[in-house]
Design brief:
- The protein contains 11 helices and 12 strands.
- It is α/β, with parallel strands linked by helices.
- The protein has 2 domains: about 10-135 and about 155-230, Alpha-Beta Complex (Spore Coat Polysaccharide Biosynthesis Protein SpsA, Chain A), CATH 3.90.550; about 235-295, no CATH class.
Length: about 300
């Protein structure tokens, strides 16, 4: 996948507790490379033995081992080993199912106003994953608590996730896109300061998008490529839900006013109390919601604190 000329696209994959998806992810990149010259960098975040063994079978791959300091730190480390004008930050549980990498390179080549690009994602059942997001706010956190995202008339102001299927059929500018497939323009990523290492996991995408937009560049969703993401089960994981709640407080601390920070905490507490009620119908939410609540009301430290 590499030659003497600089690559068109660099792909950075941060792997933690490699579970067999990484090989399928890399194989998918090879199959769907098209005419694009690509380099792949894999960062093993604290899981060296299994990842090292697998990488040795994958061919021309740059490989880095690092202690687990989080998603952003791992991706920043991988970025330092890349050379292409565009860099794709990719989860190891992603596979391309339609289109090729040339499509996304061509899209950024054709529009220098795009700083960040996300694509169409489906889950392991084939259902559309809502990757278009609106900027976090107090009103949208409250709306999330009450499920307002399912009411189209109120969603633009009171919902963070875009759930309308028709929104994913066309290209659109948005506030941010999920980091499981995050294509960035190298110059924009460097100028914006890269990923903030204080976000161990979650909320680093809206934070980055906000900084990229300050440079006059756009965050765009495009259906030019479709990928399958196998990570849906994580939403019921108590550790991950706790970290997500904490990262939202971090984002509010960085970007909102003092009253906004306090109201975000209240809104998040309400959200997880209501999820506890919902857990009577969906028991998998119970442990995850309790764990998040304990972090929000300071009965428990977050699973992963800020790293600098």
């Amino acid at each position: 996948m590499t030659s003497m000329r600089p690559p068109d696209l660099s792909v950075v994959i941060v792997s933690f507790q490699e579970d067999g998806r990484l090989k399928a992810c890399v194989d998918s990149l090879v199959r769907h490379a098209g005419s694009v010259e690509t380099e792949i960098v894999i960062v093993a975040n604290g899981d060296f033995v299994s990842t090292r063994k697998l990488v040795s079978t994958l061919g021309d791959i740059r490989y880095i081992e690092s202690e687990n300091c989080g998603y952003g730190v791992g991706n920043n480390l991988g970025f330092e080993r890349t050379h292409a004008r565009y860099v794709l930050f990719l989860n190891p549980d992603i596979e391309i199912v339609n289109g090729d990498l040339g499509d996304i390179v061509e899209r950024l080549d054709g529009d220098p106003s795009i700083g960040v690009l996300g694509v169409r994602q489906i889950d392991d059942s084939g259902a559309l994953s809502p990757t278009i997001r609106r900027a976090p706010s107090v009103l949208r956190t409250l709306g999330d608590a009450f499920g307002v995202e399912h009411w189209p008339i109120f969603a633009p102001r009171f919902a963070e996730r875009e759930l309308r299927p028709e929104a994913y059929r066309v290209e659109t500018q948005c506030d941010w896109v999920l980091g499981s497939f995050l294509l960035v323009r190298r110059t924009a990523f460097e100028a914006s300061g890269k990923f903030d290492p204080s976000f161990f996991l979650f909320s680093e995408e809206p934070d980055l998008a906000r900084r990229v937009e300050r440079f006059g560049l756009r965050v765009v969703y495009s259906p030019v490529l479709t990928v399958r993401h196998y990570g849906e089960g994580a939403k019921f994981d108590p550790l991950l839900q706790s970290q997500d709640a904490y990262s939202r407080l971090q984002y509010a601390e960085k970007h909102l006013s003092a009253p906004g920070r306090s109201l975000i905490r209240v809104a998040l507490i309400l959200k997880y109390i209501l999820r506890l009620v919902y857990s009577l119908k969906e028991p998998r939410w119970k442990r995850a919601s309790l764990s998040a609540l304990k972090v929000l009301i300071r009965l428990r430290e977050p699973p992963f604190a800020a790293r600098r």
